[in-house]
Model the fold of this input.
Amino acid sequence: MEQIRNDIIYFLKSQSFMDSDTQFAENESLTKAGIIDSIGLLELLDHISERYSIEIPEDMLTPDNLDSLQGITNLIVKLKTERS
Amino acid sequence: MSRIVCEKCILDSDVPGISIDEDSGLCQFCQTYEPLSPQEKDGYLAQMEALFREGSGKGEYDVIFALSGGKDSSYTLYELKRKYPFLNVMAVQFDNAFISDNAIENAKKMCEITECDYFRLTMGDEVLYDTFRRAALSCDAFPRFAKYRASDICNTCIGIIKQKLVEMSIVHRAPFIVFAFTPGQTPNPIINLSTSFVKWSRDLFDDQLQKIGIDDRDENFVIKKEVVENMDNVVPKIIHPLCLWDYNEERILEKLVDIGWNPPDINDSNSTNCTLNSFACYNHLQKYGIHAYAFDIAGIVRSGDMTREEGLKKLNQELSQPLILNAAKKLNLKVE
Done:
């Protein structure tokens, strides 16, 4: 979990979605915090699919799964578990 | 610290948020850049063709096409119909009140040549002037990353186009929306949307409009609630074929002129169709110190479709003062 979380933060920082010193809570909304919008979400989805070799089902493209660090981490863990 | 330019693309250390690695001499985007391999491109092309063949003939149209009348969208429409002549296409041109007459003529001409239906989407000049004025005066309404992608004015305009094209595709039951984005402008050649994602992105854009001071109660700019609420599970796919084809500006222009497209009559190095673009770039530079096309040009250079020298030349071209002044006058804004 921790590794996935750090990877997502690294991606968001390295791709300039946010400053390197930006701090935010696990369940904070990434869209409301002005970090990401719908096109940014597509970039993030692309990264997740490639990095973890998972397909994100269309019905899982929801704010619950993608609008916070916690939601994204849980989604990746769930899909990785289902795959293995 | 002195300004350092990325050794691969054209981004530099003076652009807010861009860092150049001392060892590699590359910006953070070039460091992590992995181009599509020829096999991956072929895979996407095969997938795109299969989708078109499977999905065509089921709705009123097969494709809702975003046609600005500029070079990229005109060329993409031409190539799309040449490669997939069976597609029934409605080309939608957004008249944002700043589109050049030449671009309107070109769009109509391209529709005649390719035998596609033409639709002009607009909301009235004063409404649009007010919208772009508010976008110009806004600050940080869009996320940080969106500032690299485009100016606040262009992000607003593109947002409206995307919302309305999704709406039209649902209404006309067209399974595909095609945009002519270049390799630097889009993350993925084929994007599968979902009902929940369409609803979510509608709400996100509505929030952004509110941040720039627009209350879109008439749903001029976002997908109409009635359409979203009554959409079934057949959601359009967004396709970006141009990022899978060879991209060369000179060859594209040559081809277009050859088939009867008129070269632009506006002096803007980054747009062949919009007379607001120079002002939008000027406004973005003033507000954020970011050239609205830097990331776009960097993407084309990074992918090898433009040389670094050509990219730097394009980036450093002066913005057209007459276009800036003319747009500012229409928006009732002052230029420093």
